[in-house]
Specification:
Blueprint: H1 3-34, E1 43-52, E2 57-66
Antiparallel strand pairs: 1-2
Amino acid sequence: MNEDVFNASLRKFLKQVGVTSQREIEKAVRDALADGRLMGHEKLPAKMVLTVGGISLVHEVSDEIALG
């Protein structure tokens, strides 16, 4: 295994996950605020599930996203 290639590829993937996930969450929250489904002070339960084929990895992260 080439560590440099692996690390660069992993960082690229994680950056894409972070940027696109944040964008989707922000859009969904703004839409929910606009149509009255959220008031702006809630704490939203969130869960991310990461799976990697070929090594049977399943990793879950749960937390809350506070709006105010």
